[in-house]
Amino acid sequence: MDSGDGHMRMVEGPVVEAADPWDPESRTAEIARPSVVAEAPDPYDPIVPPRYSGRAAWFARWRGILGRCGRGLVPIGLLAAVPMHFFVGRVDDTVVAAPALSDMLGGFALLLLPVMWLAYFAVSALPLVIGLAATVAVAATEAVTGSLPGPRRVWRLVAYRLRPLWLWFAAFGLLTQALPLLLTADRLGAAVAAPLALGLAALSTAVLTFTGVLGCVVLFERRHGRRRAQHLCALAPLGGLIVASLGVTVLPRLTDLIWDGVLSGLVAVVAVLLWAIAALVTYARARRAERPVTSGSLFAELSAPEPE
């Protein structure tokens, strides 16, 4: 046997079994090139849209979370309604109350005014904190276990993240709530009333859009903050979250103009819950743009013990 006709073909070490070593034309098996291997499609995930998905996939996750977790979101809405209705007033009410306090307590009462403002900004962030943290915990747990978690489990998942989340939301609330007090049509003139209202609404919507992603960063990634949120906002389409943020900004005010304050508070709570779902899906879509991530991996991050 001639050695030139009988040798086996080798490709980077292993023998190609499909090749015929006795082929007189010395043909070998074809090896698929990596460039022509099709990328496997993303499996369906109840929270995370596919990497290159559009608005339809985003809305399908948003609607799916609302449908599966709607019953579990009712207690969250009732809890958020307490600070929304009973404790959160307009910050300019404290300015109106200042002369009355001065008559009752003397000049010492004016020193209480900054404390009243700080308390207002702190409490006004509570509905957003409760809505986002609890909604994330309920949706992530349901996506993995298939059942809605109880209040104790929700508390264990987010308790250690509430303080930084509250601080961030109160800081951004200071920006959006203080500007309407400083920039009023009475000071700037009636001609700028409409542009001023539109500008403040746009600012509030932009802040809510950013803080939605920032809140999810705090809940899932803990040690990361503003810069991480800015990076993720650049990776995912924000259209759905912007619409949800606009609903939180506009719908309660429109309801308050048409009906009483009780109904506007209810509308505000519902808008916050819908905004929280939109923030979660948008955050998950941005994380998927970086690397593979699933509802299971997000739940594992959320349920990981707090580092010492």
TrEMBL record:
Keywords: Membrane, Transmembrane, Transmembrane helix. The chain crosses the membrane at residues 72-91, 111-144, 165-185, 197-220, 232-251, 257-281. It comes from the Bacteria. This is Integral membrane protein.
